[in-house]
Design a protein that fits this description.
alpha/beta, 21% strand, seven-stranded mixed sheet, 523 residues, single chain, elongated
């Protein structure tokens, strides 16, 4: 089993820098023990103009079988025919991937203390794998490596026997990749795609393989057009693991599309404090107000958009009048918490049929949200930047168009009644804005008029005669089922708004006793 990595250089940046990047000296031939054989690293050529590093993996077929990894689920397909005589010692597979991660561990991470700037730069690389099993042929090789920035991807099929051309081609190809690519990226691509092309692994695929896949796929897998196939094959078609990986990759894609870190998108669970079991009267009043409005609307099929940790979903399921409850959130962590809260794994079949938890972003239209009686956005809109509100508006009111929409949001005027909340601060560190009553009503009436809804307003909590209630709720009722118009970006908020659209650093402090639990996350 053989693989070579070649680069070219100049007097200012000699090709022998490859030795520093791989942490293997060009003047030495080194050997490393692996679980199924021995890996050799040596340099067939090493000059300032051109340098080639070779990885030769000697596989012990007897050790492979004795360890029980040559057969069974995830094992080499040829092993079922001949345990001791097969292609594993010769064709690049998951054995080569494991050797890459072991021998070139630092290079895979892009770490080079001697030449850190070179580790971050693209290099003119040529990578050759003389015998690569490709279940899917040369076309699949191009589909997998083509979108990854290589200037040239060559996958030359190898004949079964050159003496008998009528026998046709084997499932093996000679792979050659050429282009300006960062060395760490190239190694990570090989680490993932070699076993994907082979469509087999020599070891049992455990849950930690999802983390390995996401680490190696960082920066390229989330946007790869063959993401589903790569994930499925890499995880040996263990669908539960593949689904988990796809959900996490979707989160990465959403974060990249918004220019945010994954932690900023997946922020529905407040890890600094556990609000699950703490009594929060205002949150309970808010849920009671929502339930009353849904009952008045005679809603049976309800969407909880931005369901967070599932408090409202839990309350809805207690009432048999709600025949279907769907919780939607962008945060997989929040959905996992909600699933535990609801004890989905212990529900009866009839009860489980009433509830669905699914990942989704309200910044995009989703055909799964159409056809419901009501939708609830409880403490959701304030977690979005103001320029993103038109996208949410069209997704809910323009595309999904439920008969009733309930929107609750803090009333910033009431903040003066929180004794522990400093002046000018918002109630939660993730709130991007908080509206007064006039601003909220102006926005709600504009949305209602644009999309054919009527709207009324309901106070939630004690209605202070001077500053109003702590929470304000808008109840939208569909009046015109005609096709809605696309939203436009809202004008700047009125001067009456007392909290900036994006709170300053000093405005993110949250109160210790007045803070409400975050029931929903940003879409």
């Amino acid at each position: 089993m053989f693989l070579t990595i070649t680069t070219t250089g100049t007097p200012e940046a000699p090709a022998t820098d490859l030795g520093f990047l791989l942490h293997k000296h060009p003047d030495k031939a080194q050997r490393f023990s692996t679980s199924h054989g021995t890996a050799h690293v040596f340099y067939p050529e090493a000059t300032a103009e051109r340098c080639t590093a070779a990885l030769l993996l000697e596989v012990d077929p007897v050790a492979l079988v004795r360890r029980g990894q040559g057969k069974g689920r995830g094992g080499a397909p040829d092993a079922a025919l001949a345990q001791y005589v097969n292609d594993r010692p010769y064709a690049a597979s998951s054995l080569m991937s494991v050797a890459l991660s072991s021998v070139f561990k630092s290079a895979l991470r892009g770490v080079c203390a001697a030449l850190p700037e070179r580790a971050e730069e693209p290099l003119p690389l040529r990578i050759e794998v003389p015998a690569l099993p490709a279940r899917g042929g040369a076309q699949l090789v191009h589909q997998l490596f083509g979108p990854l920035g290589w200037d040239s991807v060559s996958a030359e099929p190898i004949a079964l026997d050159e003496r008998f051309p009528e026998w046709g081609e084997s499932r093996y190809v000679r792979l050659v990749l050429e282009g300006e690519v960062r060395l760490a990226d190239a190694l990570r691509q090989l680490y993932v795609l070699l076993p994907v092309l082979d469509d087999a692994k020599h070891y049992w695929v455990a849950p930690d393989e999802v983390d390995k896949l996401l680490r190696a796929g960082d920066g390229w897998l989330a946007g790869h057009p063959e993401q589903k196939l790569i994930t499925s094959r890499y995880l040996s078609r263990r669908w539960s693991l593949a689904r988990q990986a796809m959900e996490r990759l979707e989160l990465v894609r959403l974060a990249e599309s918004e220019g945010l870190d994954v932690e900023e998108v997946d922020n529905a669970v407040d890890e600094s404090s556990d609000t699950a079991d703490k009594p929060v009267p205002l949150a309970e009043r808010r849920r009671a107000a929502v339930l009353a409005a849904l009952e008045a609307a005679r809603a049976q099929r309800v969407l909880d958009l931005g369901c967070g940790q599932g408090q409202l979903v839990q309350e809805l399921l207690k009432d048999v009048r709600f025949t279907e409850v769907v919780g939607v959130d962008v945060s997989m962590r929040a959905l996992a918490v909600a699933a535990r809260r609801l004890r989905l794994d212990r529900m009866t079949e009839r009860q489980a049929a009433r509830v669905t938890l699914m990942q989704g972003s309200l910044a995009y239209t989703d055909k799964r949200l159409k056809g419901y009686d009501a939708a609830v956005l409880s403490e959701v809109i304030e977690h979005l930047d103001l320029p993103r509100l038109p996208a949410l508006e069209y997704s809910v009111f323009g595309s999904a168009r439920p008969r009733t929409v309930l929107v609750t949001t803090p009333n910033v005027e009431y903040n003066v009644r929180w004794e522990s909340l400093p002046a000018g601060h918002v109630r939660h560190r993730d709130h991007r804005f908080e509206w007064n009553r006039a601003e909220f009503r102006d926005w709600a009436r504009t949305v209602a008029e644009r999309h054919g809804y009527g709207v009324t307003f309901v106070p939630v909590g004690p209605d202070d005669p001077e500053v109003g209630p702590p929470t304000q709720m808008a109840v939208f009722t569909l009046t015109a089922p005609a096709a809605p118009t696309a939203p436009t970006r809202p004008a700047a908020t009125s001067t009456a708004r007392t909290t900036p659209a994006v709170p300053s650093t000093t405005a993110t402090t949250t109160p210790t006793t007045a803070t409400e639990p975050k029931e929903a996350t940003a879409a």
